[in-house]
Design a protein that fits this description.
The protein has 318 residues and is an alpha/beta fold. It contains 9 helices and 12 strands. It folds into 2 domains: 237 residues, Rossmann fold; 71 residues, no CATH class. 30% of the residues lie in helices and 25% in strands. The longest helix is centred in the middle third of the chain and has 18 residues. Bound molecules: adenosine-5'-diphosphate (ADP), iron/sulfur cluster and magnesium ion.
């Protein structure tokens, strides 16, 4: 059953120095219980896409087109008050990029996790019992609720942030770079925790990372984003065993290997374009080793090249 349906979404930032087209015509669907990974280098619009689904695009950004349906309701057409009372945190919640470093230093952990429940009118003892349960679920001693954020390690703080995202029992949890600031060992622990949540609770998850290795640990489906657009979309197996877009192929070569012989990491030369004036045609053309003439003038569209496997690249058009 479809939980989330994003159609031709455009989210732009109207800055004094031009319009940043951070998300520029993205479509995707997510079923209940499914896990979608979104991967791409920094600056490709991943966080902006996530903020859009939460109905929390920061100014000067706004949704310029398209729709975002959650359980059939288009949140881009809803009033803010209705999104707040019916959707945000209750149906869709988010682990914000860097949130573990933005916990409020003056409140105890349990108070921060309990806040939305108390706000929605739950009795105090019930709310705090639920917090203790959640802390246990994310692998923390419930006593940690009595501490302040600065008394916790990075990994503990990230577990607290995950508990915060789960307190209202949302159907969909968006995790934006949930392991990025952590060391390798703690990264693996957090990913294991997310796998457990996925297995036990059958929640829908969107996991966002610049690292295809992280995304592949969890995701059944993967969307590769480049310069505000999805350039390849398929099952995790298709993306790994048969990557077709040159950008996806380059991302795979850039995954650091934790095991096996240390091979040279291949970096992708250049960087993603300025989204105020992306190159015409294929946005990856200036960095693509397989670029052809047509790539620089005409934009390739996403096409289904095998079942459920979509690619936007002129190499496969004939
Ligand atoms: N508040 C903002 N004002 C203006 N531009 C922004 C703002 N937030 C993000 N952007 C721009 O939107 C583009 C996409 O950013 P972002 O969604 O954060 O990408 P990612 O999460 O993939 O790193 C970037 O060019 C970034 O500079
Ligand atoms: S469309 Fe052309 S430039 Fe773009 S990825 Fe394909 S081959 Fe490279
Ligand atoms: Mg981001």
């Amino acid at each position: 059953m479809v939980l989330l349906e994003v159609s031709n979404l455009k989210t732009y930032f109207y800055t004094l120095r031009g319009i940043v087209k951070a998300v520029d015509g993205v479509s995707l669907t997510l079923d209940r219980g499914q896990t979608l990974g979104i991967v791409g280098e920094s600056g490709c619009g991943k966080s902006t896409l996530a903020w859009s689904i939460m109905g929390l695009v920061p100014p000067p950004g706004r949704i310029a087109g398209g729709s975002i349906k959650i359980d059939g309701d288009d949140i881009t057409k809803m009033r803010e008050g209705d999104v707040r009372s019916k959707i945000r945190w209750k149906k869709v919640s988010m682990i914000f990029q860097g949130a573990m470093n933005a916990l409020n230093p003056v409140y105890k952990v349990a108070d921060q996790i309990a806040e939305p429940l108390l706000y929605s009118g739950a009795p105090r003892d019930e709310a705090y019992a639920r917090v203790a349960e959640l802390l246990e679920m994310v692998g923390l001693d419930p006593k940690i609720g009595e501490r302040y954020p600065h008394e916790l390690s990075g990994g503990q703080k990230q577990r607290v942030v995950i508990a915060m995202a789960l307190i209202m029992e949302p159907d969909l949890v968006i995790a934006d770079e949930p392991t990025t600031a952590l060391d390798v060992v703690v990264q693996a622990q957090i990913l294991n925790l997310m796998k457990e949540l996925q297995r036990k609770k059958r929640r829908s998850i969107i996991i966002i990372s610049h690292d295809l290795g992280v995304v592949s640990e969890l995701a059944e489906k993967i969307a590769v984003m480049y310069a505000g657009k999805i350039v390849e979309y398929g099952t995790a197996e298709q993306i790994f065993n048969n990557p077709m877009h040159p950008y996806t192929q380059a991302l795979i070569r850039a995954i650091p290997r934790l095991t096996g012989p240390v091979t040279k990491l291949e970096y992708i030369p250049g960087s993603p374009p300025d989204l105020r004036s992306p190159p015409p045609g294929c946005r990856f053309a200036p960095r693509c080793s397989k670029v052809m003439d047509i790539c620089r003038s005409e934009e390739p569209v996403l096409e289904e090249l095998e079942k459920d496997h979509f690619v936007a690249c002129w190499l496969y058009r004939r």
